[in-house]
Amino acid sequence: MIKFKSIVLQLKEEEYNDLCQQFVETKADKYLRLLTLYRENKYNDEEIQAMLDVNTSAYYTLKSRLFDKIQDFLTNNMSTPIIDLLRKVANIPTLIYDTHRDTAIAILSKLESELHDYDMPYELSSVYSALKKMHVHSPKYYEYTQLYNKHLAYTIALDKAEDLLNTFMRTVGEYFASRNKAQIDYLSLIKQEMVNIFKLYESHHLQVYKDIIDITFALYVPNPEAMKDDDPVEDILARMEKTFTTYSKDSNYQHLQLVYNDLAFEYYHKLNLPKKEAKFFDEVDKKLTSFLLFNHCCFTTHFLLSKIERHIELGTEESLYEDNQDNLPNYEPDKSDIPNYINYSKYMATCAFYAKKYQEAVHILNGLINDISFKNYPHSEIEVKLLLALNYSMINKYDPATSLLRSVTRKIRELNDEMGYENALIFYKILSLQMSSSARQVDQKITQLFAKFDLLNQKSNRMLEYIKIDENFIKALSQVVKR
User: Fold this and answer.
1) Do residues 222 and 176 touch, judged by C-beta distance below 8 A?
2) Which end of the chain, N or C, is less surrounded by CB atoms within 10 Å?
3) Is 19 within 8 Å of 38 (Cβ atoms)?
4) 260 near 241, Cβ under 8 Å?
5) pTM above 0.85, yes or no
């Protein structure tokens, strides 16, 4: 029963209570007991089976049936204006074959108007297909045929644009994790292809998808030549906001508002404008668990790294660990989305680091290294191993730290890119010095090396920017040898 426990834990409190009440009313005691035990999240399957006093076969049958009941409950409770509209669209064959023509045309015309209000081109093509059939002997047949063809072509273009957006976001993540320069060219091609599609249709949906790609490109892809014809980012943000206001009934835009908030935050954060970024940061942070699911249309986990930097600027980085207990309850990252999983793990490990829970940070990063292959992500491999070595050094476990540092230097030699990774080599020297020198010798040298690291850590291979390098950190690192 894949992700069954996760589904139970993700139920909203109101949904959970309603489901429990349903089982109470139907006297489904075993379903109620099993649901409650999973919700408590304290026991494994073997323990729950023993508590229910059933054999293995009965337990898995009970579990399967409970899963079916939860699915039915969640599906039946999906009642929104959009869902109601979709049900009406699904009923179109009945209108064609089993409803008086005048009545059917009246209903379809009303449905056409409602779908226009919500800007649902996919469903509109079904309406025009039906109207076309019902006017086959009328002069209006040609009119509805044209509308049907137009919306069908538009939906294909919209599908293509959404596919480009998905591919772009996946590739941005892969570039960020690998820093493979070949992917910059690929991202530039995707960006241009979106421009080509946008020129075919006058569509605010296509405009929004293009705007998301253009801002994301400006934020994360170092290719100024590909942006020379783009509007200024602030103008693009203003256009997106106006579109969302104009088409406020569009359910897609209601969700993409979070993407807009993230892009605005990242833009002002990059410009080091903390007051301007604040309101956008708050909007994303309070819906963080939901936002992290947007990885198909946004580079979501970069927000986590920027969040650390924001807390460092405010001097509140030590609060991050506790903050996660409220903002990320029961969140499970998608391990098949490797770039975002890497960022999430770096974030959680760094939060533990600032809470001085170094062993927990070690556990998180070792779990990451065991879960994925870094074959296509050499940049992330170097960064994660340096971060892990740092945490090992903070708890005086120098043997695994030294092994990791050797692995880092081997990887840089394999890449034949020592100039590009001067920052990593300086960080390597800092940790090597810290682990091999007396406390009296190491303090000043580490300070000098960190100054050099900060100077070099501004290029495309920038890493560990979320580690706060100040006097307290240098002092703590220098004095580790005493413990």
Assistant:
1) no
2) C
3) no
4) yes
5) no
Strand ranges for 162-305 from DSSP E: none
Q: What share of the chain is helix, strand, coil (3-state, %, to 5)?
A: 75, 0, 25
HSE-up of residue 417 (Cα within 13 Å, Cβ side): 17
Q: Residue 324 is encoded by which pair of tokens? A: 């996660």
Tokens of 254: 């209601």
**Residues 155, 125: contact at Cβ < 8 Å?**
yes
What's the length of the chain?
483
Token readout for 152 is: 């069908």
Q: Would you kindly state where each structural domain of the chain is located, as residue ranges?
A: 4-76, 81-138, 154-281, 317-482
* Burial class for 478, CB neighbours closer than 10 Å (0-12, 13-18, 19+): buried
Q: Give how far Cα 50 sits from Cα of 21, 47, 55, 65, Å.
A: 25, 5, 8, 18
Who's near 290: CB < 8 A, 6+ residues apart? Answer: 258
d(CA 186, CA 413): 26
Tens-place pLDDT, residues 224-279: 999 999 999 999 999 999 999 988 878 789 899 999 999 999 999 999 999 999 99
CA angle 469, 472, 477 (to 5 degrees): 75
- Report d(CA 399, CA 405) in Å as an integer: 10
Beta strands (DSSP E) in 258-328 are none
Q: pLDDT tens, 326-360?
A: 888 778 899 999 999 999 999 999 999 999 999 99
